[in-house]
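Entry 14. Ran structure prediction on the chain below.
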Amino acid sequence: MVIKGFQFSAVEAAIKKAGRKDLALIYSEVPATAAAVFTTSAVKAAPVLVSSEHIAGGFAQALIVNSGNANACTGEPGMTVARETSHLVAGALGIDTTAVQVCSTGVIGVQMPMERIRTSIPALVDGLTSGTLDDIAQAIMTTDTFPKMEASGGQAGGVSYTVAGIAKGAGMIMPNMATMLSFIITDAAVEPTFLQQTFRRAVGTSFNAITVDGDMSTNDTCLIMANGMSGNPTITEGSPEGNAFAANLNDVLLSLAKQIVKDGEGATKFVEIRVSGAKNDTDAKRAAMAIANSSLVKTAFFGQDANWGRIFAAVGYSGAEVDQSLLSLHFDDVCMARNGIFAGEDAEARGSEVLKQKEFAVSVGLGIGSGTATVYTSDLTHEYISINADYRS
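Output, structure tokens:
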């Protein structure tokens, strides 16, 4: 996979403990058009605050990221670390400090060992000519069990380009980001306003449509850099090339988002929740998220128990407009209930068979309007508790 004009590096800085690469750098050889979406939590990590300031101009050229320490809830010392990190990277690369994005993931509330980062940056920059995007995906993992990567290719004006992305996340996953990092790079030339708009739309139907445990964290960052090094004519909105680029971007982000859910901490099931017939799309999303976040529903998925009543109960408290006499429910193509009434013991037996699959769909019809939504979730298992009961150890 070739993404022109980007270089990568990862080193072991022993930020939390020794034994793995945990500090990584993505560098664009030229300033790149950039856009980012950050956590909507009112409690934001220092790197989020600094990166939000830096991205305001719509450009970026480098991104440094560490795992093992979130640098969140660390006060002014944490801000000093984030600012110094960006300053040191900028100096080593000979670029402006505001062109550097800083990201962190790991334990909240622990001061960052800045000296380890400071002494590792020279080796990080020196390694840029030999690293790969896979190195970055490996370095940002925390409780992830596999690195998450995706790529898609396209053409504009007869010139080929690539859209590639990586992500990390397995727990504390819910829309409006979560404890999730994702970095998207492309060598396509893209008009800045169009890049920002299409990126935000793609985030809305991918990373903002997943949940593992309903928890939101402090460090969520999803960033895209487009450096134009493929040499294509600039892609703009409304053009066939613009539509194709948006489709490629959507494919990459949705694949990464689904990988996060499939790697949900302790997860054994990947479930697509589809809601239709809502008053509007907002109501549909409310109902879908209530189902996807319900502990009772998620434990039933784990137990392969076709307890359809829990799903209707979640829809009922979701805040969406509901007429229970119009509700319908399917597990894949098995009708579990219609007009708000159980479809019978045969349906339950067939529904239980569906829940034995590793992947399945739950479709709920509200019967009121034309609103629709799709979200993705996992089951809730004993292993999730085990992982999170001693995460800091």
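Residues 189 and 312 are 47 Å apart (CA to CA). Will compare against last week's run tomorrow.
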